[in-house]
Design goal:
The protein folds into 3 domains: 1-90 and 250-343, Isopropylmalate Dehydrogenase (3-Layer(aba) Sandwich), CATH 3.40.718; 108-239, Isopropylmalate Dehydrogenase (3-Layer(aba) Sandwich); 369-470, Alpha-Beta Plaits (2-Layer Sandwich), CATH 3.30.70. Helix content is 32%, strand content 23%. The chain is built from 13 helices and 20 strands. The chain has helices spanning 13-26, 40-44, 53-62, 81-88, 145-161, 179-191, 204-213, 225-239, 276-288, 292-307, 327-336, 385-393, 440-452, and strands spanning 2-7, 31-36, 64-67, 93-99, 113-119, 129-131, 137-139, 166-171, 198-203, 220-223, 246-250, 255-259, 310-311, 323-324, 369-379, 400-407, 410-413, 425-432, 457-466, 469-470. The radius of gyration is 26 Å and the shape is elongated. Bound molecules: nicotinamide-adenine-dinucleotide. Nicotinamide-adenine-dinucleotide binds next to loops.
Length: 478
């Protein structure tokens, strides 16, 4: 018997959760349930996190959380509970199988069967944003080696466990050479440990276009948080409907399972919603807790129901469906099919279903880090970079020289173009004048000089080399 935490959520949440639990019970799932309240009511009671402290205790004790969609009220500083849960519980891996059920669910991609494994904790979703000048705001894209190693290893282990043939990595490392570059580099390193699984890398833009056009050429896709967020919704939609896909959020000790869609408030309380997304989430959960026999039984019954043409409004089509049903009737049809297998769709075999057992991340020995210079970011409302260089040059210390100014990453001094549009946010790059390494004290001296000359420094970034290799981007055009 496994104790799980359940939250019924908002909108269509309670309806789809009630029937999902009914199916789990009828199929013989060995679970005990602790129910907690999350979402709109909790938000509107004045708790901006959408969850009470004592509910965290329940989630952390049980470690397995089945969650219906919730409504995040617009504005008012309400934080997305989904993002908070993923980060608090270290749920680094988001797994979304996107499968088409041709010819029973209308799709342009009858052979689609892909699993998108999305990094879930970092990237632009670290949520570190600042306004720095009148005209410029910044969002930090944080990519870590442990973050990359964990998610990429997860993707290969998933492929191994479920007999998948290929893992494809999507990044934009032709542009973001440091951040996406690290993800790609770690992918290449880890791929070598799995010679039996094919691996490949695509630039995200053309890769996403290819996936939307010919998804059958992909198998497992591993990617960064933002790309994975967008890609997995597209994949679910083109497979047939966002209403059909479930997702698992997996961490080292806890896991959360859900439908990928939201709370569809306009459909709430009418027995209309398709419960399939949450049923799929629950099946992923059963595999995770080792109840793969029950998971298989439910999935085959669900496939048979879809194949029988018993469809909710969102996938109902006159020419392929036989019966238009509501949430409850659909679930009862699944229950009636428990023990049956689909005749035309491929029946599943989950004998290999279980939580993946991954090694813990091991920190590598530190590299030799040397400080080569510093970027001073300056708020200045002028427009002529040569004039700014004159002002900034006054701050030069004995150890550091101004070598370049960029605006939004484009080099504007020395030898910039008049045509380049400039904002009030300037990056002034200082490098060691003698070529030897500098110290933090040299940067403090530089900042002191800048302050003496009333230069409005809004932030600094140190320029390092790791093991002798410069580890910062050049200016565009440098
Ligand atoms: P949504 O997924 O709720 O709805 C998008 C469209 O799909 C709507 O037309 C809806 O009617 C339809 N739809 C969704 N699920 C369906 C189902 N099971 N059966 C039939 N039709 C279904 O997205 P939205 O409208 O952008 O968001 C509504 C609310 O949900 C927002 O408050 C949002 O913040 C929240 N949301 C929550 C989660 C989550 O809890 N994991 C995820 C996404 C959105």
């Amino acid at each position: 018997m496994t104790r799980i935490t359940v939250a019924k959520g908002d909108g269509i949440g309670p309806e789809i959760m009630d029937v999902t639990l009914e199916i789990l019970k009828a199929a013989g799932a060995e679970i005990e349930i602790d129910e907690i309240e999350v979402g709109e009511k909790v938000y509107l009671s004045g708790n901006t996190s959408g969850i009470a402290d004592k509910s965290w205790d329940t989630i952390r004790n049980n470690k397995v959380f089945l969650k219906a969609p919730i409504t995040t009220p617009q504005g008012g500083g309400y934080k997305s509970l989904n993002v908070t849960t993923r980060k608090f519980l270290g749920l680094y891996s988001n797994v979304r199988p996107c499968v088409s059920y041709d010819p029973f669910v209308s799709t342009k991609h009858p052979k689609m069967d892909i699993v998108i494994i999305r990094e879930n904790e970092e990237d632009l979703y670290a949520g570190i944003e600042h306004q720095q000048t009148d005209e410029v705001v910044q969002c930090l894209k944080i990519i870590s080696r442990p973050g990359c190693e964990k998610i990429i290893r997860y993707a290969f282990e998933y492929a191994k466990q479920y007999g998948r043939k290929k893992v494809t990595c999507f990044t934009k490392d032709n542009i973001m050479k440091q951040s996406d570059g690290l993800f790609h580099q770690v992918f290449d390193e880890i791929a070598k440990e799995y010679p039996e699984i094919e691996n490949e890398h695509w630039i995200i833009d053309i890769g996403a276009a290819k996936m939307a056009d010919t998804p059958e050429v992909f198998d497992v896709i591993v990617t960064l948080n933002l790309y994975g967020d967008v890609l997995s919704d597209i994949a679910a939609q083109i497979a047939g409907s966002v209403g059909l896909a479930g997702s698992a959020n997996i961490g080292e000790s806890c896991a959360m399972f859900e439908a990928i869609h939201g709370s569809a408030p306009r459909r709430a309380g009418q027995n209309l919603a398709n419960p399939s997304g949450l049923i799929q989430g629950a099946i992923l959960m059963l595999n995770h807790i080792g109840q793969n026999v029950v998971a298989e039984k439910i999935q085959n019954a669900w496939l048979k129901t879809i194949e029988d043409g018993i469809h909710t409004y969102d996938i109902f089509k006159d020419d392929i469906s036989t019966q238009k049903v509501g949430t409850k009737e659909f679930a009862h049809a699944v229950i009636a099919n428990l023990g049956n297998k689909p005749a035309k769709l491929n029946a599943v075999n989950y004998s290999n279903g279980a939580a993946l057992n991954l090694p813990k991340y091991v920190r590598k020995a530190a590299a030799e880090k040397t400080l080569l210079g510093v970027d001073l970011f300056v708020h200045w409302s002028g427009s002529n970079p040569d004039e700014l260089a004159g002002i900034i040059n006054q701050a030069n210390s004995k150890k550091l020289d101004l070598t370049m100014i960029t605006n939004r990453g484009i080099k504007v001094w020395p030898a910039g173009f008049e045509e380049t549009f400039c904002t009030d946010h300037w990056r002034c790059r200082f490098k060691s004048s003698s070529g030897i390494n500098i110290s933090n004290q040299d940067i403090i001296d530089l900042l002191q000089n800048a302050n003496n000359h009333k230069i409005d420094v809004i932030k600094t970034e140190n320029l390092y080399a790791f093991d002798g290799k410069p580890a910062f981007s050049l200016g565009q055009g440098q």
